[in-house]
Amino acid sequence: MNSTIPDAVPLCVDLDGTLVRSDMLIESILLMAKAQPFSLLMIPFWLLNGKSFLKHQVAQRIDLSQANIPYNQDVIDYVKTERATRKTVLVTGSHQSIAELVQQQTGLFDEVIGSDAERNLTSYRKRDWLVGEYGEKGFDYIGNDSDDLNVWPAAREALVVSRPNGIASKTAQTFSKVFEVASSNPKDYLSLLRVHQWSKNVLVLVPFALDQRFGDWTATLSILLAFLAMCLLASLTYIINDMLDLQADRQNATKSKRALASTRISLVDGAKIATVLGLLVLFLCLLLPLAFNLILLSYAILTLLYSFWFKKVAVLDVVVIAALHTIRVVGGTLAIAAEWSFWLLAFSMFIFFSIALAKRVAELMNLKKENKETTPGRDYRVEDVPMLIASGVSTGYLSVLIVALYINSDKVRVMYSTPEILWLICPILLYWIGRLWMKTARGEMHEDPILFAMRDRVSLDAAGLTMVVVIAAMLYG
Predict the structure, then answer these.
(1) Concatenated DSSP letters for 182-239?
(2) Is the distance from CB of 14 to CB of 91 less than 8 angstroms?
(3) Interhelix angle for 342-369 vs 385-407, to 10°?
(4) What tens digit of pLDDT does each residue of 140-152 get?
(5) What pTM, to 2 d.p., does this model score?
């Protein structure tokens, strides 16, 4: 039982960005989007009745009871200490139901007060409630952002949660205590954009290279713009996927370190970056052929369907991932109006199906190490590993067979001076795929095989050797 001193000044604590390292309204909207995606269409209409009405409507449509809320441990420890000597109050702009859930999870407060359908308890409205309840200078207050600039002057002591270059350094307000949170860095933003994943978009350039259009400057410009558009769109879809997967990612030992899941980058900043990326992609679409733009649209739609539904269905999710890689090849073909290559499309589908399965097996192997049986948000179990390995190895080797058949085609005989040299690609691929799956089966594979390959010396050597073989086949003879 809390034994507070009756006359002690109460400690009042904000929620969003203060007690928790995120914005609970955005987190709630993302949970609603995950469960009821079409409800997003109602948000503009709810906003017409005010932000408080929006918060109330969203709160009615979600269940946060099992949510993984990212609490600020320093603030929690401070409130625990202070509660021994005075009253503690959670006063937040988040909906009342969220405030009550936080109290159930933390047990830190003697009273919780939040927004409802008529009142949005932020900024001056929060100040007025606090002054009306405890009087001017009759409370201490912990906050974190510009809305709290209207509250701190009315408090006896102002306490702030701030990044090193955040609000604490940008206002004349004097703070009795500063709870510092880590700032994001350029590496976090590169990670958010998945710049390392742009290597997958080299597939867009493959039709250009196979057609040997190096002297065609119109085709060169078109394919480079197509590559850039695909990179920016891919980054946009990764951000959307990370936002929708926040809860599952926070339960994963590796994915919990992602910039959004760990809150090193705020959801607001993530949304701003996504908006800029979307505008840039639209601009590039004006410079590219309509057929390629339709591929971009197909890629975006399939990615969203994957994020909402397909990723929950075992095996279908990896089929979709393989299709998303193959779409890149189709896009590159349409960007320069190249001749269709059955062999290239088939190779892409099989090899990336194999790599996607390696990703799932790596995740399951890590779960096994943690003594867990299922993947959060996905229909996989640890017992599925043998079947997935068998499927991945077989489809990986099938992709090598497709390469062999392609090398024997009439088109290759015309395009290369000595096409027989290309046969050296087959043993290189057989070795690389076998090694990839051996490491995966041993539990030594990174949960992102593409990232693993980019950092793995053997994989880089194999890629370099393959390029040498292709150049030799073009020039020798």
Answers:
(1) PPP-HHHHHHHHTGGGGGGGGGGGHHHHHTT-TT-HHHHHHHHHHHHHHHHHHHHHHH
(2) yes
(3) 160
(4) 999 999 999 999 9
(5) 0.83
